[in-house]
Write a structure and sequence with these properties.
Layout (H helix, E strand, L loop, with lengths): L1 E5 L4 H8 L4 E5 L4 H7 L5 E4 L8 H4 L5 E4 L9 H6 L3 E3 L6 H16 L2 H9 L5 H4 L9 E5 L3 H10 L5 E5 L10 E2 L2 H7 L2 E4 L13 H6 L5 E4 L8 H10 L4 E4 L19 E3 L8 H19 L16
Parallel strand pairs: 1-2, 1-3, 3-4, 4-5, 6-7, 6-9, 7-8, 9-10, 10-11, 11-12
Helix pairs in contact: 1-12, 5-8
Length: about 325
């Protein structure tokens, strides 16, 4: 059987598949047109972040499993594919620790002005940093919106910074590393806010002008979750007007980011290219975990980390 995988996927994932007898279809692009042309006879696919439109059901008729190379699955219509008898899976545990580390790295970089200080120093402006002091994390409040695997890991790792940690999640379940509060309290009280919820109809564009108006003028927003969680224009306006002090953004509506995108001219924002899980260890884990789900399904077993329940016709 054949499995379509992105050519850039970690070799560990490719080896996992080939060592178990599967033939690889390596694609340089995972655009719908490229997949329709190159992966028409694929039994399974390992999918990164590109949209996976429903029209591919007719163009990939042998498909039995779509294994996401990560934990988000808003680029796949899970209910539609369930009706086609196709499993959709995620790499549930592969990237939580890495994304948490990257989130905290951004928090530390912003708090100490590391990026602009470096840029000004390279330009010969040694004194810029002394006129633009950063701030201590100790004594500040970190707010986490969405308290799943990544949110839990952020709280656990951030507990070493002597910060007060508060969080909001609909389930209101705590692990002892964060104080559970209501959603508005996070926006009103936190000095730094990390967005870590799934994209759902309720959370799509749920962080907008109302939330930015509630935040402190000195507050920082970190979005290493999904672009769809935030009203992009409202966030850019909040940064331009000083309604919030700074932000870190790793996820965008259009990726790669177009050269004329407003984010590139928005001040006080640390921009990164959707790389929160981009470490060798994390990439290996995601590739192997996604590959293992493909193997389970194509061997007639139920996957471990499915996000839909296919409907099979007798």
């Amino acid at each position: 059987m054949k499995v379509a995988v992105p050519s850039i996927m970690s070799q560990a994932g490719k080896d996992y598949l080939t060592s178990r007898g599967f033939e690889l279809i390596e694609t340089k692009s995972q655009s719908a047109d490229a997949l329709a042309k190159e992966a028409a006879d694929a039994d399974g696919i390992i999918l990164m972040t590109e949209p996976f439109p429903n029209r591919l059901a007719k163009q990939l008729p042998k498909l039995k499993v779509i294994a996401r190379h990560g934990v988000g699955y808003d680029n796949v219509d899970t209910e539609f594919w369930a009706k086609q008898g196709v499993w959709v899976t995620i790499a549930k545990n592969a990237n939580a620790s890495t994304v948490a580390e990257t989130t905290l790295a951004a928090m530390m970089a912003i708090s100490k002005n590391l990026v602009p200080a470096t840029e000004h120093m390279r330009q010969g402006d040694w004194g810029w940093t002394f006129a633009h002091p950063g701030f201590d994390l100790a004594g500040k409040t970190l707010g986490i919106i969405g308290y799943g695997r990544i949110g839990h890991m952020i709280a656990k790792k951030a507990s070493a910074f002597d910060m007060k940690i508060i969080a909001y999640t609909p389930s209101n379940r705590s692990d002892g590393n964060a104080e559970m509060v209501d959603r508005d309290t996070v926006f009103k009280e936190a000095d730094i806010i990390s967005l870590n919820m799934l994209v759902t109809p309720e959370t799509t564009r749920s962080v907008g002008k109302r939330e930015f108006d509630m935040m402190k003028n000195s507050a920082v927003l970190l979005n290493f979750g999904r672009a769809a969680l935030v009203d992009q224009e409202a966030m850019q306006t909040a940064l331009k007007t000083g309604s919030i002090a700074a932000a870190a953004v790793d996820v965008f509506d259009d990726e790669p980011l177009p050269k004329d995108d407003p984010w590139l001219s928005t001040p006080n924002v640390l921009l990164t290219p959707h790389f929160a899980g981009n470490t060798k260890e994390c990439m290996d884990r995601m590739a192997v975990d996604a590959a293992s789900e493909v193997v389970r399904v194509l061997n007639g077993q139920k996957p471990q980390w499915n996000v839909n329940e296919p409907q099979f016709n007798d």
